[in-house]
Amino acid sequence: MEYRRLLALTALGGWLGCIGNIGTPSPEGEHAGSGLPLAAAPMHRLNRSEYRNTLRDLLGTGLDPAADFPADDISLGFDNIASILTVSPLQVELYEQAARELAVEALTIPANAATQHFEAEALTGTVGSATGSAWNLFSNGEVSSQVTLDGDGDYVIRARVWGQQAGPDVVKAAISVDAQVVGNFDVASDQNAPEVITANATLTGGTKTVSVAFLNDYYQAPADRNLYVDWIEVEGPLGVTGQNPIREKIVFCDPVDPTCRHDILSGFAAQAWRRPVTEEELGRLEALVQKAIGQGDTIEKGLELAVTGILLAPQFIYRPELDDDPTSEFPHDLDDYELASRLSYFLWSSMPDQELFDAASLGELQDAAGLRATVDRMLADPKAGALVDNFAGQWLLVRALEDHVPDYATYPTYDDTLRDSLREEMRLYFTEFLQGNVPLNKILTAEFTYVNDRLAEHYGLPLPGTGELQRVDLQGSPERFGLLTMGSLLTVTSYPNRTSPVKRGVWILEKLLCDGPPPPPPGVEGLKPEETPTGSLRERLEAHRSDPKCAVCHQIMDPLGFGLEHYDGIGAYRTEDVGGFPIDSKGEYFDKGSFDGAQQMADFVQQDPRFATCLVEKLFTYALGRDVESEDIPHLQFISEQLSASGYMMPELIKLLVTSEPFRMRRGTKEEVTP
Amino acid sequence: MIRWKHFRSPRLSRRAFLGGAGAVLTLPVMESFIGDRAYADDAFPPRTICYYVPNGIVMNKWTPAEVGAAYALTPILAPLVNLKDQVLVLSGLANTPAQPDGPGDHAGGTSGFLTCAHALKSETDIQLGISMDQVIANAIGDQTRVPSMELGIDGGASTGGCDSGYSCAYTRNISWTSDTQPLPKTTTPSVVFNRIFEGADPNATAEEQAKRKLYRLSVLDYVHEEALALEKRLGSIDRVKLDEYLTAVFELEQRINKPAPSCEPIAEPSDGLGFIEQLDIMHDLMVLALKCDATRVISFMLGNAGSNRVYSFLGISGGHHEISHHGGVTQNLVDLETIDTWEITKFAELLEKMDAVVEGTGTLLQHSQVYFSSEIEDGDAHRHRNMPVLLAGACHDAYTSGRHIQYHADTSTAGPPLANLFLSMMAAMGVTQASFGNSTGLLGQLK
Fold this sequence. Notes:
The complex is a heterodimer.
Chain A: H1 3-12, H2 16-19, E1 44-45, H3 48-58, H4 89-107, E2 114-119, E3 124-125, E4 129-131, E5 134-137, E6 141-149, E7 153-164, E8 171-177, E9 180-187, E10 195-203, E11 206-214, E12 218-220, E13 223-236, H5 245-250, H6 258-273, H7 279-294, H8 299-312, H9 314-317, E14 318-319, E15 332-333, H10 336-347, H11 354-361, H12 368-380, H13 385-395, H14 416-434, E16 448-451, H15 453-459, E17 470-473, H16 487-492, H17 501-512, H18 537-540, H19 542-546, H20 548-562, E18 586-589, E19 593-596, H21 598-607, H22 609-624, H23 633-645, H24 650-658, H25 661-664, E20 665-666
Antiparallel strand pairs in A: 1-14, 2-13, 3-6, 4-5, 5-13, 6-11, 7-10, 7-13, 8-9, 8-11, 12-13, 15-20, 16-17, 18-19
Chain B: H1 11-17, E1 32-34, E2 37-39, E3 47-53, E4 87-91, H2 105-112, H3 132-140, E5 149-152, H4 169-172, H5 189-197, H6 206-231, H7 236-256, H8 275-291, E6 297-301, H9 320-324, H10 330-355, E7 358-359, E8 362-363, E9 368-374, E10 389-392, E11 403-406, H11 418-428
Parallel strand pairs in B: 3-6, 3-9, 4-11, 5-6
Antiparallel strand pairs in B: 1-2, 4-10, 7-8, 9-10
């Protein structure tokens, strides 16, 4: 990359003088820009894991709509690069479906009590017959239903009835439960105006028989007294409220009241959009609520539409960052809330929490001290595990473990347990650096790791005596000493049935030195596989070095991979390769000297000045969701120097990044720029 | 001349044909016209499927020795025995724009698969061209619920580079709606199912359905307004982003206004299936989508470019991509031939399913064109000429099927552009284009 040459130039160049002011508050307490130009950054769409985490923190939903989203495209080794995160029609369709389902789930009012309803014409009575939509009890008898009651409590039993009146007395009815009468009634109505009779009873749970009985039959032709029963209902147990914790967070007063509704909408939208909401925006949300009213539906329906809209709006899907003048390229500070979002999506891959919102509203993020304190708090939060999963997961290729399938015949011991242990080992290892327990520049040679019995067996280490991963000291085990000897990495940089020194060499060059090789020249065939190996893999790769047009790159790449040849395609140590040929892991490190074995090779890499700057560059790319541009170089240079001077701790690197201008500031783009 | 667009059969009879009401009506065979073409069975529109398999084909077991209708099926093509008369084997076509700058043939070939465009070699800066299925979808997509469907088995690749400095977008997508925007694949069967039946609830009353639709449109209208308000405040590079969103919202609004699909749904498929079950379900869903006229344009990727799937159920132990760099090793070539033959076996199953759907006096297969190919020819040589191409289905007699056509026997030089075939395929769908990609005209000898 061209910037490396510029990096060399800036070391000599004069604009270092300005850099000392970066991140230092001016006397007014406001952050003062250095006046250096800033690279442009396109608007960032939440990627799949960010969307998922945001839903978790915003709603606490049990749904996972992101599981069906298409995977995000990867660029520069990461899946959070803004320019590559496009929005397809399929994606919007899925967002829309998700928004609808999430709104329904969020706002469901749990039933106070269950009401069971039985149409009488579908029941059977001791006398009588079904007539139209009712049961006609034409002589004394009853119509009943079996009902299952959820639990002990107070119940209400209702029946819609009418009488066919005749004779001197009014129709008399009774409601019973398990033959116990719970209510007696005079049914004075007739079929033109049926009535609902209601009885209350305290009952125990279980299956019961609920009946409506006709008590006073009368027949003197043509006068005929009858009782008609339309339906029977049982409601209860009363007073038992279900709970919807999501709704309770959003709806904290009665939405029928317009002021309350305004507060509900502005509260939820502000959380979802990660900033205070304008009155205009609230006006449009209220208009959406009114659409439901216009259709004859309730405020509840209107609220559901509004929540759907909030979760589908671009303010939720994207992280918009605004400029007073979108066409000006002059850098300016990010708005407090925009900065809070950059911070939380960097460190947590999720939305800000309430404390971060509060810090934003109080302007505490506008100075370096406030930012640094915030970083400490955020790194201590469990949500910082997202950095392990997403940054380390991609930089160290841990995610690649999922798709990598070693050949069963060659590596029969590889199974899910081993894979899961390898993954967990990387996570726990990296977490120590993230927490600042070990300096970052020792990541290649740290002499500790985490193993369980399975992994210890795989590595030839003493068993810790448990299936849980334990931290172990590697002092007495020269074969394992840090990142480059970790099984996860060694596995994903291999082919299914053999090691690949070239892949491993390329990984080191690209991910640790940010100096990946150019692609091979056209017409290159690739390693010819052999039925029976005629030599060790190293010997067969000799063609790389004997042919001058290959040698120029391969004499650099291959030795790095050979340095790791003692570790097979799933990271186990060996002294001979597949054909039984002894492993030779000597090599030259660029023009710096020779090494014998992985440890010595790792030492070279660790001391390489490109290693330190590459670390910074990778984290920068991840934090900002864009490539390093020439405008960033002086800032990265400053960060590298400060990092080195302060002992290479990752929390310090994060603080330096977060207080740098590219992170805290932005600018617009001239109109004629066509991306 | 009656153009297809404006000539539709009454809905009741369409529903009957598409398997809904159970009653079978015989429509008189009528002629309607698109451009210069006459269609029999006018109730059934032409459909297109584009089917991609990764890592090339063992050509010396693929290319038939004879040309014309009397050619003998080669080992890899043998599974097509029952459908031989409905398939065209096309040899000698070249996709020269798919040749990458330096290595990256999988990215070059896959991105060029339906675009016949040369990808800009970059990880962040995407520049390609529209794909032929989207040219068709743009022309006729408004007649169906969904303008096109992009399906696949593999979702995103995990991390790591995709192919020699090319963005992963080039290796995971074959359908491109513009120079810069790929259409990501749906790989979850239930999501595909929902797109076909899109919220059509057989239990809801017409009134409830109408209100549901109205509410969805109200919300989309609302977000549309929000996006317009936001757009005013954004700089040019951000407006490009928001434009994608606005376009997608607009398209969804259009889609919601379309009528529900007019056929009986199958049981909703399960997710989380193994590879073969998922492939079978995807085939079923493709047939269903076409049968129900939910869409008329489908693209399908059996795997992502450079897929290193281990075909253990075929007794093969290496990764597909790795083996495809066979280096002349006998076992590798044997394994590759096994994989390729299996791919054709499954492809034949799809065609048979299509041929089992009766449509008037013909079948769904006879009314469709199904394009099958890979991003390169030989997996070791990584060439983009003498491509392995099948064209199944006569597409309302646009083609005279059942033959092997050799367009250019000299494999050391490039034959006619693949883009010419695509131009002809567009014409078969009633879409007249002057050119596409590096085309030089319609492809000859097809009829």
